[in-house]
Design goal:
The structure is a single chain. The chain has 261 residues and is an alpha/beta fold. It is 33% helix and 26% strand. It contains 9 helices and 12 strands. The chain has helices spanning 43-51, 72-78, 94-99, 112-124, 140-152, 170-187, 198-204, 223-226, 229-236; strands spanning 2-9, 21-27, 32-36, 57-62, 65-66, 79-82, 158-162, 190-194, 207-211, 217-221, 238-244, 250-257. The strands form 3 sheets. A 6-stranded mixed sheet has the order 6-7-8-3-9-10, with helices on both faces. A 4-stranded antiparallel sheet has the order 2-1-4-5, with no helix packed on it. The protein has a two-stranded antiparallel ribbon with strand order 11-12. Strand 9 (207-211) and strand 10 form a beta hairpin. The N and C termini lie far apart (42 Å).
């Protein structure tokens, strides 16, 4: 699986500017990984670094493959990345937009297997009915689902998702997370997803990575091990209670911010 060794990065390398990361080490696990942490912890920067969009120090590994030295065209066959975005209007239909996710495998003629993959992905996300519509006709949440479908249809070995549930209603959030779980189970794809909703993360992720406000690794492990009242106080600055269901899955109930005490 993916491993980060001595990752260092700063947007503005100045003497009085703290780096986003300094010698950060993280080992992700096969399956669904959620990255949690307060605003400014570097969660989005972490995914950008892993995908090679930033000039960082250190090394990113996938098993024995050095992704830091890997050519971009080879890396994009291995992993897909969906950033946070303000989705722009396009004249392309939803079907055409998702079909672009099959590049560079697409030839001059679209194969049945490409169309079938697109239709199956749209169906799994419950947006098959949107296939003939242009992107400009859709709501912000619907557009987000289309770009998620475009990412999923590539069928990479690793998918990086930066806050994919933003602008989705509660039902669509749950449907998307259930689809991600299904991908992990059925296709053996590993997923690393940045989330703000702790309860959503612990419900669906097998492995949780927590960054503190200084971009340091606070803890990593199974949800029941790392989601604690102590962590919530030290990382998020809140007083909260943590309860557990019959399966040992934690649930967080925030009480108040300690910064207001």
């Amino acid at each position: 699986m993916l491993k980060i060794e001595k990752l260092s990065f700063s947007y503005k390398p100045q003497k009085d500017k703290e780096p986003v990361f300094q010698d950060l080490n993280i080992e992700f696990r096969p399956g669904l990984n959620a990255v949690l942490g307060p605003n400014g912890a570097g969660k989005s920067t972490l995914l950008k670094s892993m995908f090679g969009l930033l000039n960082y120090g250190g090394t990113v590994w996938y098993d024995d493959e050095n992704l830091t030295r890997m050519r971009t065209e080879d890396k994009t066959k291995l992993m897909s990345y969906l950033p946070q975005m303000d989705v722009e209007t396009s004249t392309l239909t939803v079907l055409e937009m998702v079909l672009l996710g099959r590049l560079p495998e697409l030839g001059r003629r679209v194969k049945d297997e490409d169309l079938n993959s697109v239709m199956e992905t749209l169906k799994a996300l419950n947006i098959l009915h949107l296939a003939p519509k242009s992107l400009g006709e859709l709501s912000g949440g619907q557009k987000k689902l289309v770009f998620i479908a475009q990412t999923l249809v590539r069928e990479p070995r690793v998918i990086l998702l930066d806050e994919p549930v933003n602008s989705l209603d509660l039902q669509k959030q749950l449907e998307l997370c259930q689809q991600l779980q299904k991908l992990v189970e059925d296709k053996g794809i590993s997923i690393i997803v940045v989330l703000h909703d702790i309860n959503l993360a612990v419900r669906f992720a097998q492995h949780i990575v927590i960054l503190d406000e200084c971009g340091r690794l606070y803890n990593a492990g199974e949800p029941g091990q790392v989601i604690t009242e102590k962590m919530l106080r030290e990382v998020y600055g809140i007083v909260a209670s943590v309860s557990y269901d019959a399966d040992g899955i934690p649930s967080v109930s925030a009480i108040r911010s300690i910064r207001c005490d």
